[in-house]
Amino acid sequence: MADNHRKIGNLSVHPLALGGNVFGWTADEEQSFAVLDAYTAAGGNFIDTADVYSAWAPGNKGGESETVIGNWLAARGNRAGVVIATKVGAGIPERPGLSAHTIKSGVEESLRRLRTDYIDLYYTHYDDPSVPVEEFITALDALVKEGKVREIAASNITAERLAEALAFSDASGLAKYAAIQPHYNLVSRDTYEGELASVTARHSLAAIPYYALASGFLTGKYRAGGAVDSARAEGAAKHLTTDRGQRVLAALDEVARAREAEIATVALAWLAAQPTVAAPLASARTVDQLPALLAVADLRLTDAELTRLTEASA
Question: NADP-dependent oxidoreductase domain: from which residue to which, for each copy (predicted)?
């Protein structure tokens, strides 16, 4: 494997996690296969999805992304060569919360759609404060013992609940979270930095930040007075109205020019250089969008460049 692969528990992953939220939503199966083919041809091996993707789209009910990825795995016969991450507990009506029953039934549905007998990295997608950590950690541990899941992880969880779950795993000798997927990028730092990052560091967890490009804002394609045809344009454009957003774009422009790199690559490289971060997570709807994302594997920002971006985003 390439020297720049990162470790998540016992998993070895490419430094760019490919988001599957667009598969079966803004990318149909043919487009999705093309993106997946191009990503793996370039050395990528870390594909992220969830049972709820893309229930928000008209006519969808969730599971569309997993189904596309499962069809691709079956068509390519390459299951052993890729690391598949998926999630449970986003509140699908028939599987609400994080009860043991939800986790047990959720994993079976995901395995069926992914057309595989194991999931490499299985996340609790959203914390469910009504369920004790003992219940969901014990349920996840059972999946690991059964060989259905290799590593477990958490997303959308407070520092306190994360610490509580990790402490229970340690005390009981059960499976322990190996990773966290936080909302984290140059224009959203307080969603991770602070106590959540501290708990992650203390327990040597790997972070795989989502919204790594702030819904596309950090690609530089959103500028004052411009219009972009994207399903996520509204979420990205809100950053244009803030001083921080303008400062960050200016700093990204400066570093990107100096390094002859794409703005998106620089934004991802800043994330990749942060403590605990193993691999930023970004999605591509078309093959043309992939090179700027994959280039994070080869771009190492200097200390001065990192400082410039960090100060601009303060």
Answer: 15-312
